[in-house]
Amino acid sequence: MTKTIQQNIIKKLFEYKDGQLLWKTRPANCIQIGDIAGSINKYGYKRVQIQKNNYAVHRVIWTLLNGEIKDDLQIDHINGKRDDNRIENLRLVTNQENQYNRDPKGHYWVEARKRWVSIIQSKGKQKTLGYFKNKIDARKSYLKAKSELHIVEVR
C-alpha cells in the first residue's frame, strides 16, 4: 500500500515549478530553500523523504496541485518517462489503466507456423489478433487493437 501524505503538509514544504519539486524549507543543513527535492532511485523514479518516509515525487506533485489521491488510484507518466514529473505529463488512473501505458511487444514468432502472431490482453483475457508473414504487420495489428481497447480516460 502506498503511503499518503496530506496536502497541507506538502504545501508547507514544497513549491512546484516546471516539473520540479522545490524546497520551501530547510529539512537538513545540506539543503537550501529553492533546491530541487528528491533523487532518482534504481527504477528511474524520483523519490523524496518527508517526515522519515520516502514518497514518489510524482505523487507529491499531484497531491500538491490537485489534492489527495484515493487509495485505488495511481499516477501515470503519460510519456513513459519516469523522471518527467511535469503536471501535464501526469494523470490519475486505475492500476489496469496504468498497465496499458507499458510498451509490450504484442507479437512474437511462432516457429511451428513460420509466422508472427499478434496478441493483446484486455479485461483479463488474451486475444489473438492474427498471424502475419512479417514482424511489422504483426506490430501494426497490435498497435491498432491497443488504440481501440486500451483507452485511458483523463480524470
Task: Please tell me about this protein's structure.
- With 155 residues, the protein is an alpha+beta fold.
- The chain is built from four helices and ten strands; from the N terminus they run αβββββαββαβββα.
- Strand 9 (115-122) and strand 10 (125-132) form a beta hairpin.
- The protein has helices spanning 7-13, 57-66, 95-100, 135-149, and strands at residues 14-17, 20-23, 39-40, 46-50, 53-56, 74-77, 90-93, 107-110, 115-122, 125-132.
- The mean pLDDT is 87.
- It has a three-stranded antiparallel β-sheet with strand order 3-4-5. Strands 8-9-10 form a three-stranded antiparallel β-sheet, covered by helices on one side.
- The radius of gyration is 20 Å and the shape is elongated.
Number of helices: 4
Q: Any idea what the radius of gyration is?
A: 20 Å
The total count of strands amounts to 10
How far do the termini sit from each other? 22 Å
Helices and strands in order:
Layout: H1 7-13, E1 14-17, E2 20-23, E3 39-40, E4 46-50, E5 53-56, H2 57-66, E6 74-77, E7 90-93, H3 95-100, E8 107-110, E9 115-122, E10 125-132, H4 135-149
Antiparallel strand pairs: 1-2, 3-4, 4-5, 6-7, 8-9, 9-10
